[in-house]
Amino acid sequence: MLQGKMIVVTGVSSGIGEKTAQLVRAHGAYVFGVDLKPPRPNLVDAFHRADLSKPEEIDDLVQHLPIGIDGLANIAGLPPTHAPAQVLKVNLVGLKYLTTALIPRMAVGASVVNLASLAGMDWAESLPAIKDSETLLFENVEEFCHRHGIQGARSYFFSKEALIAWTLQSRWSWRDQGIRMNAISPGPVRTPILADFLETLGARAEEDMNVMERPAQPSDIAPVVAFLLSDGAAWIRGSNLAVDGGMHSHLIALRAGLAEG
After folding, report:
1. How confident is the model at residue 212 (pLDDT cuts 50, 70, 90)?
2. Where are the alpha helices (DSSP H) in the chain?
3. Mean pLDDT, the chain, as a whole number?
4. Are 130 and 88 in contact (CB under 8 A)?
5. What's the pTM value of the predicted model, to 2 decimals?
6. 55: which residues sit within 8 A by CB, 6+ positions away?
7. Across the chain, how many H-helices and E-strands are there?
8. Nearest to 192 by CA among 16, 69, 6
9. Alpha-carbon span 224 to 33, nearest angstrom
10. What are the catalytic residues?
C-alpha cells in the first residue's frame, strides 16, 4: 500500500504517531520520524528532534528532510494542560508552518493528513476567530489568545476547530502539484495524554467516555491515517473523517432529534 514511499510522521514517539509509524513502515514506507523524544528502537528509518512551537527548529528540520516526500502525517500535538499559547503554537501554527514549508519538497501525488479531533466538530461556530488565525504568527499567539478569550481547555478545542477549517480550505490548494490534504477526527484515545484531557475537559469528556463502550486505541486510528497517505485515497480531498466509534454521528443525531436506529 505504501511500498517505497517516503513518509514523515510527527509525534512519532508515542500514541497514534508511534502506531502510525509502525504500520506505514510495515506496509513498505521509509519513515522519517519527528518528536521531542527519540522513538523506541527500530520504529523509524530516520529521526529528527524538533520542537514544533519554535520556527527555527522547524526550519532546521525542513533542511534535514529530502526532496520527494510522499506523505506527511501531522500527529504531534499538546493537550490543554499546557499554556494556551503553547497549545496553539504546536497544534496549529507550527503544524501549518511545517506543512507549507514542506510543500516544495513533496512529490507529485503526495498526501498530508492532519490529526484533528472530535473537539473541533463545532468549528463553524468559531469562524471570526478562525479567519483571524489564518495569518497568525508565532510571535502573535499570546496576543491572539487574549483577544479571543482563548484560555484553559478552549485552547485545544480552538486549535482543532481551526485545523479542520484549514483542511477544508486546502482541498485544492496544491492541486496543480497533485498534493492533497485531509484530516481525521478521533474521540478519546487511550494514549499517554488521555488523563490530561479528562482532567481539563471535565464534564464533556466524562460524558463522551460514558456514552462510548471504550476509548479508542491508537491501533484504531493508525490504519485510517495509513489509508489517507496511500494512493487508494487519491480522490479524497479536503475531508475530515470521524474515527471515533460513532460519537460524531451520535452528537449530530441528538441535535437533530433522531432516535437511535
Report:
1. confident
2. 15-26, 55-64, 84-88, 95-102, 127-132, 141-147, 154-169, 194-201, 203-211, 218-229, 247-256
3. 94
4. no
5. 0.94
6. 94, 97, 138
7. 11, 7
8. 16
9. 18
10. 156
Which H or E run contains 48? strand 46-49
117, exposed or middle or buried, with CB in 10 Å at 0-12, 13-18, 19+? buried
Residue pair 8/66 in contact by the 8 Å Cβ criterion: no
Helix 218-229 × helix 15-26 angle, to 10° = 50
**Please, which pLDDT band fits residue 208 given cuts at 50, 70 and 90?**
low
Euclidean distance between CA atoms 53 and 95, whole angstroms: 9
CA distances from 159 to 116, 146, 177, 206, 223 (A): 8, 15, 27, 21, 24
Instruction: Specify the amino acid at residue 34.
Output: V
Average pLDDT on 102-115 reads 98
Residue type, 79: P
Give tens-digit pLDDT for 7-31: 999 999 999 999 999 999 999 999 9
Q: What's the pLDDT score for residue 206?
A: 64
- What number is the average pLDDT over the span 47-59? 98
